[in-house]
């Protein structure tokens, strides 16, 4: 399951793909989605809280797994959909194990750290120290029976994709931990198919890894062959056939898979509401368009580097489901791929459209006073679910698998697309 994250998060600007530490799953759109691990039937459940305990409901609000997990056993502030397409790691009494969609431990808690399964294998860690308050581990892989099939030997490992996974070994300093050592790529036997010679390896995306040696970045293929030489100061994974790179810690370029420069761009160092350090996301193409910045205004270019939507907005987001959020003066609205305003700027904030609806933030009158509330609009800009909710935490509210997590009457609540409450904490 793949979704494009439309807002900056703490891990987004890192060239390397790392799990956010202690993940149950990948945090996307203010929800979490477990990684696709097999073709078996999936079960979709939703996280609930009760007296600082966590459990799961189905889409009808029926409690499937009672709230028995402590907040240090699960994400302590997120709600949303979890796709149980295999086993999910859970911590109990300082050890990690794996539960099924009924809450049964299929693999008993026994690991110092455990990450989600992918392609039948899951990374598990053996604690050997601490760095910056996070355990340093030796890492290996278990199978679905809980058997250790690749021994604890790596500084850090990633999930398997297409039979390969990024892994690192200690360098000549002998340091352990995810930020130390030399990185390569292993197969399911634990053997390196790309030698561990790199300081960093990023996403395998569209057939290429972005890699670093001695602070220079380039690209290799799945066999380790250099496709684009390592001479950039920075390089991001390819998306839609293009990647953002930096020359000599100065100019950012957009290149194709041959290394040819498609477009070069200087940027303005301005903090945007939805694009903090926007220079890092200038060339993140979504639906064929990417944000660019000129004189403190946002516009869009196509994959040829041509300006298709003039830089005119105070802030902007990526496109999703055919629309992008744009800010004019202090209000947010929506544009289409042609740059036409299809929903007039009128909202204090908004999310992107997902499953046909978008969150919209406005003021409403209650007892003749203005109160800030959130509702959901359709592509015409009409409120399908009237503004009545406050927003949990700092994340955007969005629908996923037909439910959205909101705050109603100061209580955590799940609603469906008709606005009906399917579950509310008591």
UniProtKB/TrEMBL annotation:
UniProt xrefs under InterPro entries:
WG_beta_rep
Q: Which domain of life is it from?
A: Bacteria
What protein is this chain from?
A: WG repeat-containing protein
Q: Which organism is it from?
A: candidate division WOR-1 bacterium RIFOXYB2_FULL_36_35
């Amino acid at each position: 399951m793949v979704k494009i994250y439309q807002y900056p998060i703490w891990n987004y600007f890192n060239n390397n793909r790392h799990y956010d530490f202690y993940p149950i799953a990948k945090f996307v759109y203010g929800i979490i989605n477990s990684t696709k691990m097999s073709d078996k039937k999936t079960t979709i459940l939703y996280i609930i809280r009760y007296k600082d305990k966590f459990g799961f409901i189905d889409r009808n609000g029926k409690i499937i797994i009672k709230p028995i997990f402590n907040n240090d056993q699960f994400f302590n502030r997120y709600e949303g959909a979890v796709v149980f397409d295999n086993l999910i790691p859970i911590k109990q009494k300082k050890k990690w194990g794996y539960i099924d969609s009924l809450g049964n431990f299929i693999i008993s808690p026994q690991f110092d750290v455990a990450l989600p399964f992918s392609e039948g294998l899951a990374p598990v860690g053996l604690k050997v120290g601490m760095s910056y308050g996070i355990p340093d581990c030796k890492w290996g892989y278990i199978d679905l029976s809980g058997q250790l099939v690749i021994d604890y030997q790596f500084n850090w490992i990633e999930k398997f994709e297409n039979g390969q996974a990024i892994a690192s070994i200690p360098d000549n300093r002998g340091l352990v931990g995810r930020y130390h050592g030399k990185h390569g790529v292993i197969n399911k036997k634990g053997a390196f198919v790309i030698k561990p010679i790199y300081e960093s390896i990023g996403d395998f995306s569209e057939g290429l890894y972005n890699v670093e040696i001695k602070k220079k970045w380039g690209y290799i293929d799945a066999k380790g062959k250099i496709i684009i030489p390592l001479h950039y100061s920075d390089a991001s994974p390819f998306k839609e056939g293009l990647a953002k790179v930096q020359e000599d810690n100065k100019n950012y370029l957009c290149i194709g898979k041959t290394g040819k420069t498609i477009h070069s761009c200087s940027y303005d160092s301005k903090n945007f509401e939805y694009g903090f350090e926007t220079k890092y996301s200038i060339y993140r193409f979504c639906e064929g368009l990417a944000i660019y910045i000129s004189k403190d205004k946002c516009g869009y270019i196509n994959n040829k580097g041509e300006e298709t939507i003039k830089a005119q907005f105070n802030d902007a987001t990526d496109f999703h489901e055919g629309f992008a959020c744009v800010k004019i003066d202090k209000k947010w609205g929506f544009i289409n791929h042609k740059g036409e305003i299809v929903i007039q700027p009128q909202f204090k904030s908004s999310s992107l459209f997902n499953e046909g609806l978008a969150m919209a933030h406005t003021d409403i009158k209650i007892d003749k006073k203005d109160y800030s509330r959130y509702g959901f609009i359709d592509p015409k800009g009409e409120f399908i679910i009237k503004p009545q909710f406050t927003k949990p935490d700092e994340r955007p509210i969005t629908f996923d698998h037909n439910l959205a997590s909101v705050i109603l009457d100061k209580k955590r609540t799940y609603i469906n697309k008709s606005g009906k409450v399917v579950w509310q904490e008591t």
